[in-house]
Amino acid sequence: MENVQCQCGHTNPPGTKLCESCGRSLTEKDQNSKLVDMRYEGTARRSQTYNKSIIDKIWNFFSSVKVGVSIIVILLVAAAIGTILPQQAFVPASTEATIKAYYADTYGSVGRVYHALGFHDLYSSYWFITLVGMLAISLVIASLDRFVPLYKSLKNQRVLRHPSFMDKQRIYGSGAGSEDTLEKAETKLKELKYKVRTDKSGLLAEKGRFSRWGPYVNHIGLIIFLFGVMLRMMPGFYVDESLWLREGETRAIPEVPGYYLENKNFKLETYTGEGEDAKFGEAIDRVGTVVKNYQTDIVLYQEPEASLPGATDNLEVVQEYPIRVNQPLKFDGYAVYQMDYKLNELKAMTFALTNKETEESLGELTIDLINPDELYELETGSTVELLGYYPDFSGFEDGEPQTATPLPNNPGFLVELTTPETPEGETSFITIQNTVEPLGENQYKLTFQNADTRNVSGLTVRKDSTLPILGLGGLIFMIGVAQGMYFNHRRFWIQQKADGTLLLAGHTNKNWFGLKKDLDRVVESAKLPAYTDQQDEIDKKEKAEKEGESSS
Amino acid sequence: MTVKKKKRSYVRAAILLVMAGAIVFTIYNSFAGGKSELLQVGDEAPDFALVDLEGKKHQLSDYQGQGVFVNFWGTWCKPCEKEFPLMENQYQVYKDQGVQILAVNIAQSDYEVRQYAEQRDLTFPIVIDKTKSVMEAYNIRPLPTTLLVNPEGKITKIITGEMSEEDIASYMEEIKPE
Question: Could you give the C-alpha distances from A152 to A42, A46, A157, A217, in angstroms and in order?
């Protein structure tokens, strides 16, 4: 492509529609049309001008609005498909293999394809991220390509435009004028808060040019927003972890280095329906129980500086706090929320050592299921020795008792019972409601008396350092929208020819009604020639033609 | 004009490169799951201090100059159970050649761990991570996980899952000081 030479002598970059200097239409199509296309002031989109190297080609691709819109449509469709089957976070499986199997088993081949294409974890799938990134590239390049020429063009506007530019404006008028018309128009326009520039026998009045930057400001906001979303994926910026904490336990907080939480107590309170709660009586009768409060009393610890993981004997108390729903523990940018609970996990079991025949008790012992002792001595001189402890007994393998998890869900004990009567000792394997005597019939047994339980709190640890960035992006986006929507860029060109004829043209990027109202006031005070809205006339003419066709 | 064109080309290439880089970086991070830096081969092994069943403190950095075979385990973990006798065998071979085993139990009771070790005649030090803070620092997910730490204190291998006796022998050979 080559530069375009205008009749006025100005050289325009290739692709220009309206001469940068005088405003004459440069293409045949534009010359023949009744009105000029004022988009981007008739400047050439920068990328259209060059298309040589591979970089220019990529640039040109992303500069296209069609490409940008296509990416948005694809993203929308993908996001819609992502809602058809549940996302992996809501699937009852935790490891990669079980998640994959879940989709295949539950939804058949559809589920298999869904999983293979990454729809099960859409926002983390590489192609979705790539598409969002391409949208960001498109936003940046398309904006740059349009903003730069538009900015230059508006900055270098000439006051005097060629008559062919004037008469192709939507608002146009011409007619005889008096000597002081221009002066009067200038005064009135200034009164209406227009910026007025004059040149020889013409003036350019302009107002609200900044509204033209609205879309670009709005795109900057979007880019900042996307940048914030990108940071979320970086370590340290975004934490969303869950933690099961049992009463009495102290644990390192996941993803929060140096801090520990101890669960002192979990409580679940319900409305009683009496006294102050009487007003809930009806609701309680209807639905059973109504929960008043979920609360975990915690102690937050911090390890001293320069202390090592594992060396937790000198933790420092930071604070004690009751975490309730909507009242998270907040510290150092993190928040710990009450999210879930489990009641009554086994904690300790009390047994009586009894003679199987006489049912006489030789005393009681309590086995702490979290931290059991090896030897229990009873007052009568009898002892119970713990030979093996299997907190979640799941059966025997090669004669060895097995445990499925470290949690005391189904405790099993291998014990040796020694009494004055049986100094040799008797071995017995005890699980809940079941006793096995592997080495022959025993005289004594452990009889279950009662159990202590403890509660488990389900806590969620959150941190989101990207919120201020997302907020800033959103704010800038809104400023851009307001800038573009609620303000208009209005311009009037008035010039007087040597013979005294006045030419008048007006343009706005939106709200033509407001523009005409301004112009009416100027016309009135400065005695300008009457103007017409050429678009209206074209529309009327087309309408009339259509009616003529249909009536004939 | 050609200078201008060249400049334009560079600017465009730079913008495209930066943005493409941001996409790749984001994808990389999303695969890391946004967790705090996962430990990788070649990283300095984070130091820790844990107490064994005899009450003796073991600090990883005290073993500088020796190879350390750090194994995370629990009594409920079946592959751990199979590995232990094999580790014990190889420990007998390599302990005099400057290779140490630290078996880190995940927050179980002293009783369970001691009884488990005695039953299997394990002689290497077994420490208990009572608050799971070492597990957190090392980002341990599946059990067993084994890390090989060379005499310079760098991680040379991270093994998740069960190991054969040959594996264990070759790993110990790998981190043996020269």
Answer: 12, 12, 9, 17
Residue A375: how many CB atoms within 10 A of its CB? 11
Which pLDDT tens digit goes with each residue over B28-56? 887 765 455 567 888 899 999 999 999 89
Domain boundaries, chain B: 1-34, 49-175
Task: Flag if B36 and A257 touch (Cβ within 8 Å).
Answer: yes
Q: Which residues of B touch A51 (CB under 8 A)?
A: none
- Report the pLDDT value the prediction gives residue A45, as an integer from 0 to 100: 76
With beta carbons under 8 A apart, name residues in chain A contacting B48.
308-311
Distance CA A34, CA A534 (A): 8
A159-208+488-546 CATH, one of 3.40.50.2300, 3.30.450.370, 3.30.160.110, 2.60.120.1440? 3.30.160.110
CB contact A96 to B (< 8 Å): no
Contacts of B32 in chain A (CB under 8 A): 235
- Give the CA distances from residue B12 to residues A60, A110, A132, A196, B18, in Å, rounded to whole numbers and listed in that order: 10, 42, 20, 37, 10
**pLDDT per residue over B98-141, tens digit each?**
999 999 999 999 999 999 999 999 999 999 999 999 998 888 88
Q: Does A122 touch chain B (CB under 8 A)?
A: no
Answer whether A228's CB lies under 8 Å from A470's CB.
yes
CB contact (8 A) between residue A250 and residue B131: yes
Q: Which CATH number fits domain B49-175: 3.40.250.10, 3.40.30.10, 3.40.190.10, 3.30.450.40?
A: 3.40.30.10
All structural domains of chain A with their residue ranges: 45-153, 159-208+488-546, 214-235+468-484, 238-343+458-467, 346-453
- Rounded Cα gap, residues A322 and A297, in angstroms: 4
**Are residues A310 and B36, on separate chains, in Cβ contact within 8 Å?**
no
* Chain B CA closest to residue A234: B34
Could you identify the residue written with the tokens 């309590």? A366
